[in-house]
Amino acid sequence: MHQATSATVGEKPLLSLRDINMTFGGVKALKNVSFEVRPGEVHCLAGENGCGKSTLIKVITGVYRPADGAVIEYDGETYSHMSPVTAQDRGIQVIWQDLALFPEMSVAENIAFHEVLGRRPRLVDYNRMRRIAIDALARLGVTLDVDLPLKEYAIAQRQIVAIARALIGEAKLVFMDEPTASLTQSETDHLLDIVRNLSDSGVAVVFVSHRLAEVLEISSRITVLRDGALVGVYPAAGMTQSRITELMTGKTFDQHVRARPKDDQPVVLEVRGLTRPGQFEDISLTVHRGETVGITGLLGAGRTELALALFGMLKPASGSISIEGKKVRFASNRDAIKAGVAYLSEDRLSLGLIQPQTIADNLVIASLRKILSGGLLSEDRKRSLVSRWIADLGVRIGRQADAISTLSGGNQQRVAIAKWLATDPKLLILDCPTVGVDVGARAGIFDIVAKLAESGLAIILISDEVPEVYFNADRVLHMTQGRIVGTYDPRLARLEDIEAAVYA
Amino acid sequence: MRSLIRTHATEFSLLVVIVVISTVLSFATANFFSLGNAFDLLNISAVNIIFAVGLLVVLIAGGIDISFAVAASVVQYCAAILLGWIGGGGWISGLLIAGSLGVLLGCVNAFLIHRFRIISIVATISTFNIYFGLLMFFTRGVSIYDLPDWLTDRVILFEHEMPDGTWIEITLPVLVMAVCVVATWLLITRTTIGRQLYAFGDNPEGARRFGINIGAMQFIAFGWLGLMAGIGGLIQAHYAQEVVPNALYGRELDVLAAVVLGGARLGGGKGSVLGCVLGVLMISITQNGLNLMGVSPFAFKMIVGAIILIAITLSNTRIERLLALVGEKGAGR
């Protein structure tokens, strides 16, 4: 194992916060939080969405000003609050989750962006920018064409560009907000190598994440926040994902295989030899009433394409789909919805929910017909329909008329599921339902899935996290390069074996 | 070369379309393929190109402006009156007055957008109506023909008779246009301000986090368009030798179409001066060609509309991919 604790216990911290309080409109976002980072340390800041992680970073970077009495000690100086300029000048950098990059501009300009900043207009020195960018990338051991617009590169490379940018200037403390959320395994490994090198060269790195498995091994300590308060600071050695989850949520989770045979139930979905060249080939599967079938496989295995075909949004070239014994051909997803298929899309933020609209409007959008009264939409019917689902799925909301964007990831996902349940589906396809959802809230979502299955709904659960389908599905299908290459019964197979097959 | 084609796909595809149209026209008409006609085209297009490079800056910064053409009319009118008061003036005072008035009107838009957070299309539709309403109200629709001599006299900077008897002329509007084009190119590609404008248009939130002054960006973008509108307005008065209050009404959409055709993106962060100039020229060439072919002017709008649609579809998808493919083969892969 890598020697993570290069900073010794007695060493003076690089950053030390005490008595940080922060209130937004009467809600205490941070309560007497303290936080400490040592020079060259790799530190995890863990907590569920809304626990105050981002608020704390914004206090450290000077975006927010904490309540009086706060003490911020950084690199030998004491402040009552930071300012963005001071934070940057003193080497504090943040790589935001959304990266704050400029896709139309060149890689060089993105990396050396500080060169075009400043109040006084000057001529741009492109050669200098290119040199800076090439040097910065070389430090990370990466070569990219710095003249190409950034949009030509995939998310993993963009992440590297964001890191390269953060390291220009004398960065001493780098925050990475959910850096691995959209990376594949090998890309994550590469990122962790980069972080190791940074740490070795004396830069402290703070991971802000709720997906911790991969960062645990290179971190030295973990600070856990819950509901705006500090839970504790723990050494990373010996820490497990499930222990962190408990600390973050304050609850204990025991994961057990939920699978139960449903073969005696009537068949809801029957797929035979479904093929769409280049995307999926010869797919045959059956889903019974009340059964949850898990489909796993790496990104690009054709899972989403298959789901879209079942939902009438992609036309298969050959093969057949039957619902309750009747062959169906979907001209569009409207036909699919009518036939009782619901599809919770993978990209909840941009496709699944209409962010600026209200919770109520989002929930009823797929079942407007049901709230008609005399041919017009009825506010009363809408309210009662929404109230019913909100209560059923345990969504925590303020008012129905609040924008959906005000909800946490987990609650948004519940509304998205409710939206489809309101259409009375027979088959529910869940495409990566826990992306961007906290660990604690994930368990809640799977409880809902189990409840739905119990009530007789047929469910297809797609996920690239093998444990999710292992623990929550009755049957697990493994897809690779558009084909189903393995079928497992979670009661008989071992999780490690499936994982080995999938990640091989 | 391949990456050049990739990063400048729109400009390349426009160039291809222009070459195709020109080739067709040179076979279809006797006069199209002559240097004389080429310079004519430049003279005709000068005002639109001045407007276009101004609008380009606003589009790059993520905004849109519907009001600049009527703002140019307001500038023409006010400048004509002001010049009368100061006793005639000359090109320098004329350009100064027109430019300043234009900047002022542009800054009104920036102020509304920045101070009151009105989205730019709504703000400028409002000012479009206000400017035009005020202009028609105070002028009662009356044109000004009594302009100073310096403004109405044609200024030919260079002329040369070609062997075939046609004349090449470079007039003042072309010179002013060239200066505006080069100045805009310098602004957006060579100065830090220009790159901040691109960044702001591309990712406003990202730009804000870097401490870029968002208000300044709006004032610079709309101020620059105002400047170009003012200058373009004066040049148009010079070209038309009169000031007609509704002469430029409707021009905003022609220019907007040309700029978007040239690769600028509604939504910001993208666009080049070259593409913008090619966009205007393509539309001018089409109109000019139709003219020479004796097509009814009533059919112009329809045909130009169709060409814009075709060109934009091509540059959005097909040609870009096609060129990438050809480029790959060319590179011996």
What brief labels describe this structure?
heterodimer; A: 504 residues; alpha/beta; Rossmann fold; 6-stranded mixed beta sheet; 22 strands; 32% helix; 25% strand; B: 333 residues; mainly alpha; two-stranded antiparallel sheet; 14 helices; 73% helix; 3% strand; ABC_transp_permease (chain B)
Q: Main beta sheet of chain A, described?
A: 6 strands, mixed
What count of helical segments of chain B does DSSP give? Answer: 14
CATH fold naming of the largest domain in chain A = Rossmann fold
Order of helices and strands of chain B: HHHHHHHEEHHHHHHH
Instruction: State the CATH class of the largest domain in chain A.
Output: Alpha Beta
How does the helix and strand content of chain B classify structurally?
A: mainly alpha
Under the CATH scheme, the architecture of the largest domain in chain A is: 3-Layer(aba) Sandwich
Number of β-strand runs of chain B: 2
Textual characterization of the structure:
The complex is a heterodimer of chains A (504) and B (333). Chain A is α/β, with parallel strands linked by helices. Chain A contains 17 helices and 22 strands. Chain A has four domains: 12-91 and 174-252, P-loop containing nucleotide triphosphate hydrolases (Rossmann fold, 3-Layer(aba) Sandwich), CATH 3.40.50.300; 101-169, no CATH class; 253-340 and 428-437 and 458-504, Rossmann fold (3-Layer(aba) Sandwich); 348-424, no CATH class. In chain A, the strands form five sheets. Chain A has a six-stranded mixed β-sheet, sandwiched between helices. Chain A has a six-stranded mixed β-sheet with strand order 16-19-20-13-21-22, sandwiched between helices. In chain A, strands 2-1-4-5 form a four-stranded antiparallel β-sheet, with helices on one face. In chain A, helix 4 packs across helix 5 (155-167). Chain B has 333 residues and is mainly α. Chain B has a domain at 35-255 and 264-271. Chain B is 73% helix and 3% strand. Chain B has 14 helices and two strands. Chain B has helices spanning 2-7, 9-28, 35-60, 68-85, 91-115, 120-139, 149-152, 172-190, 192-202, 204-209, 214-240, 251-261, 273-292, 300-330; strands spanning 156-161, 167-171. In chain B, strands 1-2 form a two-stranded antiparallel sheet. In chain B, strand 1 (156-161) and strand 2 form a beta hairpin. In chain B, helix 3 runs parallel beside helix 8. Chain B is globular. Mean pLDDT of chain B is 87; it is low at 325-333. The chains are: A alpha/beta (504), B mainly alpha (333). Chain A binds chain B through residues 84-85, 96, 98-105, 109, 113-119, 121-124, 145, 147-149, 152, and chain B through 3, 6-7, 189-196, 198-199, 202-203, 205-207, 209-213, 265, 269-270.
